[in-house]
Write a structure and sequence with these properties.
Arc Repressor Mutant, subunit A; homodimer; DNA-binding; Tetracycline Repressor, domain 2; 74% helix; 215 residues; mainly alpha; 10 helices
Chain lengths: 215, 215
DNA sequence: GTCTATATCATGATAGAC
DNA sequence: GTCTATCATGATATAGAC
């Protein structure tokens, strides 16, 4: 039945998300995953074809809506600004929020997904590289253009680096949401994602707009 | 013989560094490693005891001198500055250089080590967590103090975040040195590590010293 | 110290009954 | 669609010869 099939599929995806997030692609076995899902070992191959394809689906089903959200928020901000170039803060907020907000989502997968996507982008799986590049390409192009408009004097190579630095900052913040409370020695509480986001935007706004030092 | 023993040990460490870096801890097998090293499978257990202990040694033998260098550079900069608090740039340079300079080292392991240590810090292996914490603790304390001196008005929680953001920026830059040339579409050449470092310092200096926005 | 040989177990994948 | 059973392979680790 389609209904039961969907239920099993969903349970497997959920368990896979958690275990891939915790142990990485090669560190999580299909046996662990199907056991935690309460499904049969053979279900993975039936529903997804292979472990790699399961991993791909775990990621893409969350990445796609997230990136659409990022593009939508940017478009909305631009409409609001009219002819003016967007303030840096506005671009960054549109870029960061759809990712970090998932740290508090009641929706499934929040923290797991953050850790997973951070690991994948900082340390890509070769078999997924092309598909991820295709998925992120419109986003990169679109935001590069927005940043370039707001920072007209910045040479392309510097903009490239500053966007990379911003990405690194964001990914690390996302990857470690799950243990910042512990390592901050009580300075920060895990439910204050807004506080993290505000500080992240402060930091990256300054970094992107920094003066350039002499070579 | 002690000499041959050392040679085998060294060959295994070198191969392990490359393969752990490329495929991660669980993605690299002892078979791969010993084969690439031209050593016997049993050599790993003889010399290191277990796969986990091999991994630990691969990391720590490079982390220890790197972190000593960071502490030394900071002390030297402080001596140079006398009574004055250090400029942000000087602290950052001392923090960043001993890591990123390894991207060009003729010495073995440069790029591999960068990728490996970045992955380990952004996504720690549980079995190594305590030992890494112990190894990095003096560094964190020392640099936190230096930053706090130079940024006297900054509340501790904000300093915590900004140091985390700086760490994330640095680790991502380190992790991807090996393919920035490719993904920059020709904007940047891999031999220009100085250029990367200068831009990284520009970015983080601005971020650490950024104005704080209202909550 | 280094090797061969092997023990023991986990892995991803699939064939075929239901 | 889901199950059991199994295959072929590869994993870490170790015992014991040399």
């Amino acid at each position: 039945m389609a209904i039961e099939s969907e239920a099993t599929r969903e349970k497997v995806l959920k368990a896979a998300e958690r275990l891939f997030s915790k142990n990485g692609f090669s560190g999580a076995s299909l046996r662990q995953i199907t056991e935690e899902a309460g499904a049969n070992l053979a279900a993975v191959n039936y529903h997804f074809g292979s472990k790699e394809d399961l991993y791909k689906e775990v990621l893409l089903r969350r990445v796609r809506p997230m990136n659409e959200e990022r593009l939508t928020l940017l478009a909305q901000a631009e409409q609001l600004a009219g002819e003016q170039p967007l303030p840096l803060r506005a671009i960054l907020d549109a870029f960061i929020r759809p990712l970090l907000s998932r740290a508090t989502d009641r929706a499934p997968g929040g923290l797991s997904f953050l850790r997973l996507i951070s690991r994948e982008l900082a340390d890509p799986q070769p078999f997924l590289f092309d598909e991820m590049a295709r998925e992120f390409d419109p986003l990169v192009k679109r935001y590069t253009h927005a940043f370039a408009q707001t920072l007209p004097g910045l040479p392309p190579v510097d903009l490239f680096w500053r966007m990379q630095f911003t990405t690194g900052t964001l990914l690390y913040a996302a990857a470690r949401q799950h243990d910042f409370e512990r390592i901050s020695s009580g300075l920060w509480k895990a439910d204050d994602v807004e506080g993290c986001m505000r500080r992240l935007v402060d930091y990256c706004t300054a970094g992107l707009g920094a003066p350039r030092s002499a070579a």
